[in-house]
């Protein structure tokens, strides 16, 4: 039987990781902030004609949980790395903190998808008055710099986009695995 794909959501606290996952799973969004310690959710999705089993790991962004967090996502097959488009510090911490932590934590090389959240809030007057929002171009540059496999800007108001992001991440792992198995078959059963 095919191994379950582990997909982890990583990034600063408050950037919207848990709500992104809730949005994908069709669960009610949580308006008030409820810090995550760590949670796992089993699900499945269909890629082509294949049913793929997935385990989502939703991690805590706070530094006081760093040891628990690193244990929780060490076995990831793919990472959804999030920052908030209206929180420049969370963007800067992608290369300063999150990429080094991911490299220390996940021993194999796994695909990383960079996601800018809170897209719907970028155009809000009160946000623009008090912060310099992160542009799409800055997000794309960062994705290139960290060698991410993709970059997306989204928000929980666009469930279609959220669904595409998660499916893209899972599909990337699925096809890598299929290609690897095909190569093995070609070598041993040609
Ligand atoms: N407007 C808006 N609010 C969001 C969005 N995503 C998350 N939030 C809010 O941002 C806060 C933090 O979200 P949460 O998912 O708990 O962040 P986490 O700590 O990264 O898991 C909560 O108050 C959410 O309601 C979004 O796309 N748009
Ligand atoms: Mg959370």
Automatic annotation (TrEMBL):
InterPro entries, A to Z: P-loop_NTPase, Small_GTP-bd, Small_GTPase, Small_GTPase_Rho
GO terms for MF: GTP binding; GTPase activity
Name of the molecule in the record: Rac-like GTP-binding protein ARAC7
Coiled-coil residues: none
Annotated organism of origin: Magallana gigas
Keywords for the protein's UniProt record, in alphabetical order: GTP-binding, Nucleotide-binding
Any one GO biological process: small GTPase-mediated signal transduction
Residue stretches spanning the membrane: none
SUPFAM superfamilies: P-loop containing nucleoside triphosphate hydrolases
Keyword Metal-binding: no
A Pfam family matched in the record: Ras
């Amino acid at each position: 039987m095919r191994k379950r794909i582990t997909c982890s959501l990583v990034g600063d606290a408050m950037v919207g990781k848990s709500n992104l996952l809730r949005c994908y799973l069709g669960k009610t969004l949580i308006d008030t902030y409820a810090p995550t310690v760590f949670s796992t959710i089993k699900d499945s999705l269909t890629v082509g004609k294949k049913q793929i089993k997935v385990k989502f790991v939703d991690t805590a962004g706070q530094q006081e949980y760093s040891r628990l967090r690193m244990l929780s996502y060490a076995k990831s097959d793919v990472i959804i790395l999030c920052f908030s488009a209206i929180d420049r510090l969370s963007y800067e911490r992608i290369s300063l903190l999150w990429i080094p932590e991911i490299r220390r934590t996940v021993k194999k090389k796994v695909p990383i998808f960079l996601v800018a959240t809170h897209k719907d809030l970028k155009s809000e007057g009160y946000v623009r008055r008090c912060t310099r929002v992160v542009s799409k171009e800055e997000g794309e540059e960062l994705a290139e710099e960290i060698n991410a496999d993709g970059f997306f800007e989204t928000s929980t108001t666009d469930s279609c986009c959220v669904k595409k992001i998660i499916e893209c991440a899972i599909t990337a792992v699925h096809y890598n695995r299929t290609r690897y198995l095909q190569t093995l078959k070609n070598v041993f059963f040609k």
